[in-house]
Amino acid sequence: MSSPLNIHAIGLALPRLDGPAKVTGAAPYAYEHVVEHPAYLFPVQASIARGRVVAIDTSAAAAVPGVLDVMTHENAPRLASDGDLELWVLQSDQVFYRGQFVAAVTAESPETARHAAGLVRVDYAQERHDVVLNADSDELYVPGMLTVGEPTDSDDGDLDAGLAAAEIVVDQTYTTPMEHNNPMEPHAVIAAWHGTGEDARLTIYCGSQGVSWMQAELATMFGLEPSRIRMVSPYVGGGFGSKAFVHPDTVLAALAAQRSGGRPVKLALTRQQMFAIVGYRTSTIQRVQLGADRDGRLTAIAHEVVQLTSRFKEWVEQTALSTRTMYAAPNRRTKHRVARLDLPQPTIMRAPGECPGMFATEVAMDELAVACGLDPIELRIRNEPDLDPDTGLPFSGRHVVECYREGARRFGWEGRDPTPRVRREHGWLVGTGMAASTYPAVRMAGSAASIRFGADGCYVVQIAAADIGTGTWTTLTQVAADALAVPVTSIDLRIGDTALPPGSAAGRSSGMASWGSTIVAAACAFRDAYGTDPPVDAEAQAPMPDHPEAERYAAHSFGAQFAEVRVHADTGEIRVSRMLGVFDAGRIVNPRTARSQFVGGMTMGISMALHENSRARPAVRPRRQPGLRRVPHRRERRHRRDRRRLDRRTRPASQGAGCAWHR
């Protein structure tokens, strides 16, 4: 197979190719696809945390003019599989969590459906419930494996001996709250059935991070061959993990469409409904123990995590996973313990596990720096590993020390006074800090790409990838242009549809590595078959290539971030006046889109630290969504314009920058 990759587009800071369509409103999001004669759906949600539905009175709702159907567990179509209880929508009277769908109204207008849904009366038999994470619970259990497939626990060396030998020990417990996914585009779906019986086909328009994954999930739930389900999602208004999998809203819409007499059914969740239906980051209780000698060299690291999952489906985040890799120590231990609670199902939220886990590890490292009397950067450099501490493999590239030093130079770190409450400016206490960041470089299997030469001289490149706002449409076009040795304007990229060759999901920053290598393989196959002067309609397809050499290395992105924070001495108001990040994420395909990812991650970090704190209380109260005053605004972001990257090539494969996380 030839290798036609000719670098000319990769590395250019091209503006996003889908930008004009989005800002002019020409790009159709999930709810905006044009379908003929749609009906509208609005759900009824459970008001208890655990129990059973004993009676439902739908008469008032059914009597509202314009109401077409009221669906409950008593009359909903039967699903083919009960293997995923999160998606077992309206199949029984059991209530697993507050906010679960217990009924739904289909009507001629969304206003009518919402009004009628409010008239449905539901009686419950409540059961004792538990919604509070407790590290002392007798019901904590050891999961078989982390959700990402890594071992639940790790134990290297002799931790107790390492701590006993340490001259300085930090032993702290850190907690992080639940944080809910709230992408700019709320979750919405259009479901339409075509044909009946063995000829039945289902079309779903939705915002999806992985249409091929969702197609497979729905095929299982409805007992259909995947080829009889088409998922359409060309544009996605953000996801942060919440649109990687099928959620109950998609199943509900498909069930309602089975009862709609052939009419498409449209459902758009409200912001309030999203807090119960589309997932969240689990809360955590994390104990971190660090042992070190007087020079700050680690003798032991322990990271023990308690986190939650729902009672009906397991979700185990890899919270301590980064601790296994980040710093060198001869004695290391990580543990994950899980509590089953009567709450909705947690799911992916940007850098799941790594984000809260790195927070705890990095704060503990800062505590150790104080205890040792060392600069936080110097402490981290002294504990920099030569090989991956977890696997013993060499790193494909690890330039985090360069990130520390370049960041310190640009930030003005030298000469800072680390003493608290020393620096005052016009009534504000001013402090500075830094932290390291890391995220694994991952490729996900299951992608294929096709390339066809069109009569207009353009190459139609097709893969069921997803652009969730990260710039994938643009960067994959750049990769395709270089792989075919043609201008970017000669590439017609098509994504987000299961009618195309399959694609893995946009998750764990794996998109560019997975889809990009697949497109390069398809370009190689195309050029091998047709050369540089192909006939019209010439076409070639290839799966994602194997990369056995990658197994010989530990691949991660790294970074260092610096912040200046001001706290008003009288009012306690907090302002993040300055931030800087320096990142090592391999060769950057598009500096503009990569910068947006880094800026977005840092902004999200501010929001997590200062604003986000979803709470589950034993007493039932309505969830409140944040107003605009509770998100980072210009005053908090005005000085955060300096982002730097190290454009370092890594061996042997590509990697992503989307979740290079920080605290």
UniProtKB/TrEMBL annotation:
Enumerate the residue ranges of region (Disordered).
Answer: 611-663
Sorted keywords for this record are: Molybdenum, Oxidoreductase
List where Basic residues composition bias occurs: 618-648
Entries under Gene3D superfamilies matching the protein: Aldehyde oxidase/xanthine dehydrogenase, a/b hammerhead, Aldehyde oxidase/xanthine dehydrogenase, molybdopterin binding domain
Query: Please, which domain of life does this record's source organism belong to?
Result: Bacteria
As recorded in UniProt, its EC number(s) are: 1.17.1.4
Q: Name one GO molecular function term.
A: xanthine dehydrogenase activity
Is the Chaperone keyword given for this protein? Answer: no
Known SMART domains for this protein?
Ald_Xan_dh_C
Question: Pfam families in the record, alphabetically?
Answer: Ald_Xan_dh_C, MoCoBD_1, MoCoBD_2
Question: Where does the Aldehyde oxidase/xanthine dehydrogenase a/b hammerhead domain lie?
Answer: 24-128
**InterPro entries according to UniProt:** Ald_Oxase/Xan_DH_a/b (IPR000674), Ald_Oxase/Xan_DH_a/b_sf (IPR036856), Ald_Oxase/xanthine_DH-like (IPR016208), AldOxase/xan_DH_MoCoBD1 (IPR008274), AldOxase/xan_DH_MoCoBD2 (IPR046867), AldOxase/xan_DH_Mopterin-bd_sf (IPR037165)
Transmembrane domains' residue ranges: none
Q: What is this protein called?
A: Xanthine dehydrogenase YagR molybdenum-binding subunit
**Organism per entry:** Actinopolymorpha pittospori
